[in-house]
Structures are given as structure tokens and as C-alpha cells.
Model the fold of this input.
Amino acid sequence: MCGIGKLKSLQKLKIFDLRDASGYRIGELENMNELCKLGINCLENVKDAEEACSAKLCAKRRLTDLALRWSNTDLRNFDLDENVLDSLRPPKCLRNLSICNYMGARSAIWMNNVNLLSNLKKIEKINLWKCLEWETLPPFGQLPFLKSLKLSNMPKVKWLESKFNGNDTYRAFPLLEVLNIEKLGALEDWFEAGVAAEDGCLFPCLIKLVLLDCPKLKELPSLPSKLKTLKIYNNMEWTTLNFCSSSNPIPLKTLEVFDCRNITSLPLADEIARLAALRSLTITKCPNLISLGEMQTTNNCHLMLSDLEISDPSVLLMEPLRSIASLKELIIAVNGEVVSFPNEAEQWFLNVRSSLSELYFVNLKSLESLPSSLESLSSLQLLQIVNVPMLRELPNLPTSLKSLACGMCHPDLKERYREDGGSDRHKIAHIPNINI
Done:
């Protein structure tokens, strides 16, 4: 909309696309002081710092949500990006900040250690995405009310927290609940050398931690006492996952380990007494995994999982999964090598026959047969088989089954169970909802 600055009472402008044309420049924002939510796109069209200042963001005393976005282009003056961001200082009432495609190598002046607590004192959520040249993060750990921090595609950042003002030890991220770190290829450690959090004061309120494509990260921090969700994807160097050494219960409800090629051990059995809250577990594309820990003979505890996703059926035979009996949903997915299930898996399915209600076989390119013990799953209601191209026949299925879906399987399977009959049609005739 040309001349949008005339709408002085506007409160939400989530997408303002800047252009190099009258009526579409950033100066349109100068007198829009009622704005609560603002998203500015195409910041590469701002000519200089002086023009950026004309937006007068710091004068907008109601602004709580701000998104600053440059276009995804490589032909930019990186120094100009830094000067423009310096000139877009937000008001002290800001709660949510997002910065995307910024190509400067440093933080804005208003993010530095001197002014951080005054300029961003009330900030609760920060999202930095595809800031490819950014090297050193501001001391976000000192923000007193920060609850969510998401960093994505920032390949030059080495530490989450750096040394400022000679402050070597402090309470780090005191109220942070969600930490999402994706594609930080140079990230080595949580702190720069010589910096550390006070004992027990790193992420004391963290509930959710996601780590994706951080191949140089040395290790996890000790799991925070409130952590409920932990997702680790494609962290290639780790060989094991270490839980904190205290004897306190681990409140973890969801654990996902995906595409960690070097990992050999997940010590679930060792910590089973402390993992009473764990309900959802994913272990996929970890080809070197050989152990889930060692069960103590004096320990009668069991995992109380309800959801399990794996790619290697042999994981089912590792303790503590071998003796699990509470499972409601099982997904076996993304394996191009498994041809059939081991004989021991037949007995495993018998262990969950009274609890398992949903079963999925997905992207199993070489699988030729399903376990015959599926017929004994007396609680099974949903069975889905997707992209299992070598599967020619179904075993007998339980009478409890209400829904069966087979897609992208061998043509013989469809022929056998076509709607007008077939030699094996009796195996599925009792199922009310079928899609093959």
C-alpha cells in the first residue's frame, strides 16, 4: 500500500515490504507510533543509516513484536547491514525480536553488553535466522526475562555465550524455557574459554532443547532439572548421550535422537529409575548404536513409554525396550536394509499385545515380510504401511483392527487384496476401513 504511513493509528503491520520508491520507504513508519506488531521486509532497500533512523522505532512505546528481514541475496554491502541494524534500535517495551538474513559480522550497538539490559530488558523471545556472517552473539544469557531463544543457520558462531566486561561466572539464561539451535556448524561449546555459569545456574528453567546439525559441539550441558523435551539431530561426533550425574529424577517426557551416525550408546537402562516420566522415544538412523545401557539385576523399574519410533528393529531387543509392555504407538521407519524381523521380535510383539493400538511401517525399501505375531495384537486398531515396495503379502491381522492403509507397496499386494476378492482376501475381510 503506497503511503501506509498515513495510517497513524494502525496497530499491526506484520509485513511491510520496502521498495526504492516514494511511498514505500522506511520513513513511512516515522509517525506510526501506535504499532504493537511490526515486520519490515527488504531492508536492503534502505540506503543508509540516516534513512533507517527515520523510522524512529525507539519512539514506538507500544511496540512489543519486531521482525527485521533482509532479502536472501548475496550481492549486498555487509557494512551497510550493520549500520542499518544499529539505527533500528527498538523501544524498551519490546517482548519479541526476530532478525532474518542479516549479513553483518557483529551485533547491533544496542545489543552490546553496555546497553543490553536496558534496551532489551523485557525481551522474552529472540529468533535469529540465516545470519551467515554473524560471529559473536550478544550476552543473551544475561537477559532476565528471556524465555525462548532460536538460532538457525549461523555458521560462524562458536559459542552461545562470550566473555564481556571481565565477567567470568554468572547466572546464565535464568528464565529460558526453549532453546532451539539449528545449523550452527562452528559451534564448539556453550561458553567461550574462560567463561562458565555458576554451579547449577545454566538453563535452570529450560523445558525444551533442540540441537540440529551442530557437528562440532563437544557435549551436552548437564540436563537441566526441568527439561521435558530433548531432540538431537545429526550431531555427528557424539558417541554417547550423558545424563547429569545427580540422583534426582529426570523429568524428560520426549527424547529424540536422529541421524547421529557415531553414537554407540544411549544409557537409558542405567538411568531407568530416574526416567519415570519418559513417554515418547525416537531412535532413528543411528547405525552404530549397540547399547541402551545395562539393567541392574536389583532394579525392577521399567520404561513406561507410550510412543516409540525406530529405524532398526534390532533396537527392540535391547534393554530396557525388550521388556516394555506399555507401548501404544510404534513407528518403524526409514531403513533400506532390513529384509525381515528377527525371530526374537515375534516374542517382543507378544509383550505389547494388550497395549499397542497404532502401528506404522514407513519407508522400508527392502522389507519383504511382517511379523506373523501381529495377529496376536489384541488392542491394535490402526495399521499403516507406506512405501514398503517389496512387501507382497500381509500376515493374518487381529480382529480388533479398525483401519488398514497400504500405499506404495508391491503390486502383488494390491492384486491379492483387491475389492472384488482374491485368495487372501479373508485375512482382511473383518476390517471396516481399508485403503490399499
